[in-house]
Design a protein that fits this description.
alpha/beta; six-stranded parallel β-sheet; four-stranded antiparallel β-sheet; 15 helices; 10 strands; elongated
């Protein structure tokens, strides 16, 4: 598909602050899709937006990246001059295809093999389909991606384990609380890692989560997004006493120390997961009976092991992508020439039928069946040569394939509009 294009920006070239300004919600994506529903310049359109990237994939004869960027900026109410320095326009269809595959598989994620990205891409495709902005090409491409994703899940270790500190912390927490009925979790400190941990908790069955931050408005905003509870930072020690597990990413060394933790009157069990560097949970806290502390090094060891597995699986994932893309493009190419092939077959069938009809009155019922069978077999054998040649030529050189298709169309006077 020569007209498949994209615009993109990601964590690789864009600061977090700018990514946040240009991140598209479902409402934003749907508003943009509606904007382009009657735009004659493009036929199909898909927006993919996460905390790490904002991208648009489209089919159009011309490069309309400027229009897309301007409309994204309008929706987000920011100056397009700020966005233009980060957005990249890509007009090579092979690069665009490959990039979308890699994004959907998690190869382009900050956390390699990110398990959330495939769901985010599926949701983006659903919004596109709902607004009738996905045509035959995007439908086939997206379903090819979803099938490739299943193969990655089944055949590789690319999605095994948690490969980031926040992922690993939540995975460990889920295991630690498996025997606790309705565990109470407290997350203190909502920097990047703390915020990621809160979002990752949404993928567990744990529902009793309280989040706290020294700037209360930050906690309120995240609580609104996730549906979790929040409390003022002044109530930290009361909340800590009630919690079974405390996840801390406070940038204050030894904030949780032996003296203030001892005052919580721990009766049975309390776990601290310290995601801070330097430590926000003092080393001697583990001397308190019933207290367990996991440091960022403990959690990193778990994440590093998972990441090593994922990195080893990358060549297998890339081989699956290559095979899937090859098959997709082969089928797409065949579909491009299918009207010509169908037209040729119909034209030859009309010739065959007319010739057979000339001798209809001279043949017995049995002879008619034999003639019909023989001539159909001949037709199929005659068809096989140009069809195979057309496919082989197009596979080697698409332009030459198109030339051959035109020759066949002209030679047999095939009207493609009627096919």
């Amino acid at each position: 598909m020569k007209d498949f294009k994209a615009i993109r920006l990601s964590y690789k070239n864009t600061p977090l602050e700018v990514r946040g300004k240009l991140s598209l919600s479902q409402d934003d994506c749907e508003q943009l899709l509606k904007t382009y529903q009657n735009d004659e310049r493009l036929n199909e359109l898909l927006f993919v937006s996460t905390c790490n990237r904002t991208e648009a994939y489209y089919i159009a004869d011309e490069d309309i990246s400027e229009s897309l960027i301007n409309n994204i900026c309008k929706v987000k109410e920011i100056e397009d001059t700020e966005a233009n320095q980060y957005f990249e326009s890509v007009c090579d269809p092979k690069d665009v295809q490959n990039h979308l595959f890699r994004v959907a598989m998690g190869l382009e994620s900050q956390v390699v093999g990110d398990i959330q990205i495939s769901s985010q891409v599926k949701r983006a495709y659903q919004w596109t389909a709902d607004h009738e902005m996905a045509g035959p090409y995007l439908h086939r491409l997206m379903h090819t991606i979803f099938n490739a994703n299943k193969r990655v899940q089944i055949e590789t270790e690319f999605r095994d384990g948690a490969a980031s500190v926040s992922y690993a912390a939540v995975e460990m927490l889920d295991e630690l609380t498996s025997d606790i009925n309705d565990p109470k979790i407290l997350v203190v400190g909502l920097g990047e890692i703390g915020t990621d941990a809160v979002r990752n908790l949404q993928n567990t069955s744990i529902s009793d989560v309280t989040i706290m931050n020294r700037t209360f408005s930050v906690a309120e905003e995240l609580a609104s997004e996730t549906g979790y509870k929040t409390r003022p930072f002044e109530e930290l020690w009361k909340a800590a006493k009630e919690a079974d597990v405390i996840i801390s990413s406070l940038p204050i060394a030894d904030y949780f120390n032996k003296e203030n933790i001892s005052s919580l009157d721990i009766l049975a069990f309390k776990c601290f997961m310290d995601l801070s560097v330097p430590r926000s949970v003092a080393e001697n806290v583990e001397e308190i009976p019933g207290v367990i502390v996991y440091t960022v090094d403990d959690i990193n060891a778990r994440a590093d092991k998972a990441l090593e597995k994922r990195i080893k699986a990358i060549p297998h994932v890339e081989a699956i992508i290559e095979a899937s893309l090859s098959e997709f493009n082969k089928r797409t190419q065949e579909m491009e020439f299918s009207p010509i092939i169908k037209g040729l077959k119909n034209t030859l069938e009309e010739i065959r039928d007319k010739e057979v009809q000339k001798y209809d009155s001279q043949l017995s019922s049995k002879e008619k069946k034999q003639v019909d069978k023989i001539t159909k077999n001949l037709l199929n054998k005659i068809m096989k040569v140009p069809v195979l040649q057309l496919k082989a030529t197009a596979s080697a050189n698409k332009k030459e394939g198109q030339k051959m298709g035109k020759i066949i169309t002209d030679l047999f006077d095939i009207d493609l509009e009627k096919r």
